[in-house]
Write a structure and sequence with these properties.
The chain has 446 residues and is α+β, with helices and mostly antiparallel strands. The protein is built from five helices and 22 strands. The chain starts with a strand and ends in a 7-residue tail after the last helix.
Amino acid sequence: MPRGVTADGPLLRKGQAMKKSRFGILTKTLIAFSAALVVLTISLTTATMTPITEGFEAGGKTAYAAGNVALGTGSWFMDDALTGNLSTDRKTGAFSARIRNTGLMHMNFNKTGAGTVSIQHAVFGTDGSSTWQLWTSTNSGSTWTQVGSTVTTSSTSLQTATFTVNNSNAIRFEIRKVSGGANRINIDNVQVGDFSSPTPTPTPPITSEHLTMGNPSNAVTSITEPNNYLMEKPQYSMSYSRDNGGPNWVSWHLDSSWLGSTPRQDDFRADTTLPAGWYQVQATDFSGSGFDRGHMCPSADRTITVAANSATFLMTNMIPQLPANNQGVWANLESYSRSLVSQGNELYIISGGQGLQFFIANGHVAVPAQTWKVIIVLPNGSNDVSRVTTATRTIAVVIPNSGTINSDWRTYRVSVDQVEAITGFDFFSNVSSGIQAVIEGRVDNQ
């Protein structure tokens, strides 16, 4: 140290007078001590909630003797450790921590929750290897618990050790050198990430009975897919298109358990379960257009209870159909389907519209050029997918949405493959591909 200089600044030269009274000096000393005590108290008790990175760039501890040092993240305690800035200190900036013997350093403050901790480490100068450990305390330093495995430091370049903590409590960290004797190690860039709740293992969803045979467009209940938005109701499932104001497809299971004596409710209404901000097609939106509010899942397929029948009158279950389509050929196929149920069968039915003529309802509802329907027919039973064979009957139709069409649905029979070709959907995808190839490739002739 140069002559005439202390660690705190230059000495008074001989002959210089002290102008201040002892009382004044004492007063200032007490004020400074009180302020320091307040700062220290805050630093020892305040918990930070943000990620922290300590690079030791504040320096400030030049001796190995035990003591606290104010660093960028807060107050740290160092014993047999210091902040080093020699050329032989391994560091990314001007300083890093240096620990010898069985020294340690720890935070005097808490962080609220911690996720992953990463620490860079290397040997000092040409020293030999050492080992060290990371410890945590969740009671402000009263007791400590080791995290992860003991780390060996042997490289002269900084290496990164990573620890998974995942603790939501107020927590502080301590680094302990546990072997290597007088060999020194450098510690730099201690990073403590925030705690994040582990993502729970999702419970596999219970597949709706109406999607037993598959989800034709892989629709999902996410507003990021506004034109393939999955809506699942107890009575049917559908893929909804926000921009077209109607279903891409509606799928439902029909067996005797859905049929009863409940009268038609005729309570057409908007579906208020659509995502916020989406237009809700109103019961009156088809008025004056010349088009019927055409059910996809028919009212007469849901007569077991008032609630079941009422659900079919939600406008999300409707597409605009001309009366010749809706009240003629379409209704006839619906009636035929229910007659198959009365003969001891159960059906899986999917229907929708294809092609665009124009929009009605002030641009909110698309009018399709055609309506289509695919049906798979099984005798009553269980484990329905496994009971589908190459002999299983399928019915598929594509019907013009026109005012001059035949009322006999058999006129419009096609193969399931043909409906897939015009819609882009994959029907009965839960059935094995070999069986699909057979039953979807033929046209019904019964």
